[in-house]
Amino acid sequence: MMHMKSVHLQMGKDQFQKLKALSAKTGAPVNALIRRAIDAYLRKVK
Q1: What is the residue-wise DSSP string for 1-42?
Q2: Which of 2, 7, 11, 31 could form a cystine bridge with 15, CB 3.0-4.6 A?
Q3: What total number of domains does the chain contain?
Q4: pLDDT for the residue numbered 45
Q5: The model's pTM
Q6: pLDDT beyond 70 at 9
């Protein structure tokens, strides 16, 4: 089981609106979308 750490994140209104729209479309929670994006970025810059 993965242990989660809590972080405070600020983003622009446009970014958040796009994440909420993607969340509604996919059914994935916004926090899961953010974690997926971070994972994809970390794989890319490896």
Answers
A1: -PPP--------HHHHHHHHHHHHHH---HHHHHHHHHHHHH
A2: 11
A3: 1
A4: 96
A5: 0.85
A6: yes
